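Field guide to reading this record: the first block holds the primary sequence, the second block holds the structure written as discrete tokens, and the final block holds curator observations. Each block starts with its own label. This record concerns Long-chain fatty acid--CoA ligase, catalogued under organism Croceicoccus ponticola.

BLOCK 1 — SEQUENCE
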Amino acid sequence: MMQRPEGDRLARVLDYWAAKAPDHKAVCYFDSAICYAELQDLSTTAARSLLALGVGRGDRVGVLLGNRPEWIVMSMATSYIGAILVPLNTWYKAYELRWTLGHCGISVLVSADRFLKTDYRALLTAIVPEIENAGTTAIASPEFPHLKSVFFLGEAHGRYRSWMDFLDLAHDVSREDFLLVVNAATGDDTAFILYTSGSTADPKGVMLNGKGVVANGFDLGAARTITSDDLVWLGSPLFYGLGATNAVPATFTRGATLVLQGHFDATMAIDVIERTGSTVYYGTGNMTRAILDDPGFSLARVGTLQKGNAGTVAEYKRMTLVEMGVTGAVPAYGLTESYGNATVGCPDDPLDIKLGTSGRPLPGMEMRIVDPQTGKDLPQGETGLVLLRGYTTPGYFDNPEETAKALRPDGFFDTGDLGCLDGEGRFIFHSRLKEVIKSGGINVSPVEIEQLIAAHPDVRDAYVVGVGHPVKGELVVAFVDPSARLSEDDIQSYVKERAASFKVPQHVFFRSEASLPRLASGKVAKFRLAEEARRELGLNIV
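BLOCK 2 — STRUCTURE
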């Protein structure tokens, strides 16, 4: 059995493996590889650069990057000095970026110059015009007073500062001063703020501390039987919990190798898995479907995959375990607030057990199933509200109201999910009590989309619901009360221009306000809308 590495935060885990196996590969990225000693050197350099910029414990550092080594370097750099990494969603449009930059008060931002179809230099300059003329001096933005420096990956470009400019700043901080800061930081410091859509219009910043990331990450890796011999292919974006606080710590606490490919593309994924001989699969259900549907897919090309993440939805689990042949993959259940996963299955469980359950609670994680109305514990087999205690978020950044709703006085976290425990203590997920929609593995806020659609000049009001789907988990469906003639495409295009693509409704129904079903309180009965959409779409799923 593998011993837990010394250290209560990711940077200390990196130190452990850099000393124990300095030449072992830590990260593979296309044709390049970084060993543990090199990752340590790059990360300490980046940490000293942050100190040179005045970043201290508790300060927020943003990364707007795809799945590439610099993201990992920055996560380790902030961990060394007790700063907080804020991974920004690369699918965000201007409004979403502006809101997040302002909400968490990012002081230093490292961004791609371009990623896929987005020019981030142009986008960020439009949001913060002061970036372009700041040069080597601190940015002075009235709208973003915390933001002092922005660096772009890629070639140096005019007045913009580059990644190399950032690393060069390390020379201004001595090793002695650096070590003083490192030794003052602890595992109780917040390590990440991960923004996740919820039942409120604005995203919530989930705070996660370094100690929880490492401890739960090690247990996640153990449950998936990851060892230092494994190559962990990551398809999920690093800015999501499945990447940042699941795959990353599960890999590095076990001394394994993380395989990155920039962004998910099914054809590319098959090639990378085949070429690297990846042994651990970390993809979402929709990624699994895309890989299986790719013309270049064959079991032989991904045959090195032995273990990994099978997910929560039965159909996705079947695709991973059976169609893709990753027979050692395990089902799991969790949320960003539970440091990735709260329950994980056993690799040796029979297929029917894997398909029907999501495993047992991890070490250090308590799970209760209670009556949503009375709060009393329910017996095994009865479905109720899922509460978690242990490795759970201490709260939402600068959001005491939502924190108070989620965290109970006894320390249990209210997941808003419904489920039960079987006779052998395995968790069975049923549905979401909260309104948040889980579409293609991504959390989507109905309120946010409703507000976007309602801003259309020809829309009176809008209501958004999730409708169960056998492949996507849930579909995003909008009910719109128009004031003029509109088509489904009109609404979808309007949302697509203003928000990330996963927020675009897959289906739009037009209904007058008077025809909408209502509760006794006068509020629109959304569960009735979901039932209507299910009938209209021919989806007989509860």
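BLOCK 3 — OBSERVATIONS
Residues 437-537 form a domain with the GMP Synthetase; Chain A, domain 3 fold (CATH 3.30.300.30).
The two ends are 42 Å apart (CA to CA).
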